[in-house]
Amino acid sequence: MGRALRNMFVAGCVLLWLIPLYLLIVNALTPAGGYTGTPDWAPRGFAILDNLSIAWSEAGIGQSFLVSLLYSVVCGSVAVLVAAMAAFAVVVLPVPRPAFWFWLIYSGTLFPLQMFLAPLFGLYADANLYDTRLGLMLVYAAWAVPFAFFLIRNQMTTMPPEVTEAAMLDGASFRRIFWRIHVPLMSSGLGAAFIFQFTAVWNDLLLGITLSRSPEVQPVMAALTTLNSAYGSSGPPVILAGALIVSVPTLLVFLLFRGLFLRGVTAIAR
Amino acid sequence: MSETLSAAGPIRVKRRIPTRTPGQASGAATARGRLGSPAGSLVWAAPALAFVGVLLVYPFFRSVYGSLFEDNGFTSEFIGLDNYVRLAEDPILGRSLINTVMWVAGTLLLPVVAGLLIAVATHRMRLGNLAQLVIVLPYAISGASTAVLWKFMLTSDGAVNQVLGAVGLGSLAQPWLLEWPQNTVSLIVAGTWQATGINVVLFTIGLRAIPRDIVEAAHLDGVSGWSMFRHITLPQLRAMTVVVVGMAIVNSLKAFDLIWVLTQGGPSRSSETLALTMYREAFRLFHVGYGSAVALVLSVIVVAASWLYLRRQMPGARD
């Protein structure tokens, strides 16, 4: 009795979660011009490649896709490296008042993004960074640092200090200890932090629409939003195809690195 | 799993971040000689401090200061606390606050409870992993894509109304996004579809960490079903619940992209939350100082809520 109830509950949830995904795929298959105004429940034609190519080239998702890939990879890596160095300083090195530095860096995640936007806009306008790729990369890297720092620091504190002490007795320099001991031993933790920050930068909308305007600078979520507000001209199948395209990288990363992701989640959750 | 969870004990107590590792503590006396100058080691933290300081901490304080000005992007004039007075009198603020509270309550009710139930139901179930994967998939999709998809489903001739018509409940069909409060509720449901997955993952991690002998001992004592869940599972999941609920509170307060893409806060600002009010005031209407005031109110709420919550919950989470 209990088992049957449980199976029904799980089956119901799976169905509820699958229906939107099913609709997304089926309607992205509909030819762009052939959309009737109401959602299709069965495939009508197989125009997904056409829709993808319209979304990619005509609607400008493609350009933003590549730019966003640049932002996510570069800013994710920079943030993880910078955060790992800071974690190394706070956990391993004899920094005075490590708790203060911890909170200072970590405070970047506490406040809502809205709190930084208006002054950032002013700062960027003055420094000619508004609507430039460099400007967005700087802010994405800065935004990704605190949380990566939090994850990496958590994992670094679980490393036995004897390892560092032994290396120091052998006369290794900080730089050597960091690159030869901490980075290799923490590679999975650093990987998990990178995945988190890659996803965060990829999925950002707010910074993208605030600090950029032109298509060659805009990140992909901003491009998708623009496409969505132009609903009438391009038609739902194209927009859904666009939503599919922009979901591919995070879905791939998620499915490929599921184990690493789970370890990362465990690291936040503990 | 239980090893890592207990090894990380101090970290759960967020108020008391351990200020020194065992290595630092044992070598404190000689560390100065062996490790070089303390100030020199700050060089390692310098890039992080520069990024965070220039692009996050400085703008934060600049925003606090800017909220005391009437600033339209071209001219600015010191007006003291007038922005806050205006904010308190703004009729939009009431709706915006109600929506924000609805988001917090809805996110605590739907994704957290659904996540818990699904995690418990799929735990040690045949094909349970597959079911979990389906529910986690939307979590990998961005808020903007989720919004695009749900807009397609929620418009007046969208999929939801189609289904209602098909099963003979056509009378329940309605313009989901056009009237308050069902537009905010619809947005929360769309958010639930996306966010439940991560809670399932977190609760599953928590379930795996429950020592087997406790469950077996309870079984021997004849405990099962609901009382097992109520008296064994739920208390053992407490540490994880603290994390999930804490994240839900903060994320629901900050929710932006889903609402912005689905309704832009409309129609006539009826689905706006504080996060959207700030964006609209500062970047659509160019009330920069006023927008900063909204952002500060939002920040105070976010920080106060998480601080109060963690303060109450953290000490008990140690066991």
Automatic annotation (TrEMBL), chain A:
> What PROSITE patterns would the database entry show?
ABC_TM1 (PS50928)
Annotated compartments: Cell membrane
The regions listed as transmembrane in this protein's record are 69-93, 100-122, 134-152, 183-202, 238-261
- Gene Ontology BP terms: transmembrane transport
Q: Does the keyword Cell membrane apply?
A: yes
At the top level of its lineage, which domain of life is listed? Bacteria
Q: Cellular component per GO?
A: plasma membrane
Q: What is this protein called?
A: Carbohydrate ABC transporter permease
The organism's taxonomy opens as: Bacteria, Bacillati, Actinomycetota, Actinomycetes, Kitasatosporales
TrEMBL record, chain B:
Record bears the keyword Transcription: no
What protein family is recorded? Belongs to the binding-protein-dependent transport system permease family.
Q: Report if keyword Oxidoreductase is assigned.
A: no
**Principal place of residence:** membrane
Residues forming the ABC transmembrane type-1 domain are 97-309
UniProt-recorded name of the protein:
Sugar ABC transporter permease
Q: GO cellular component terms?
A: plasma membrane
Q: Which residues form a coiled coil?
A: none
The protein's topology relative to the membrane is: Multi-pass membrane protein
Q: Where in the cell is it found?
A: Cell membrane
Identify the domain of life: Bacteria
Q: Which InterPro entries match?
A: ABC_transporter_permease, MetI-like, MetI-like_sf
- Could you tell me the keywords of this UniProt record? Cell membrane, Membrane, Transmembrane, Transmembrane helix, Transport
Q: Name one GO biological process term.
A: transmembrane transport
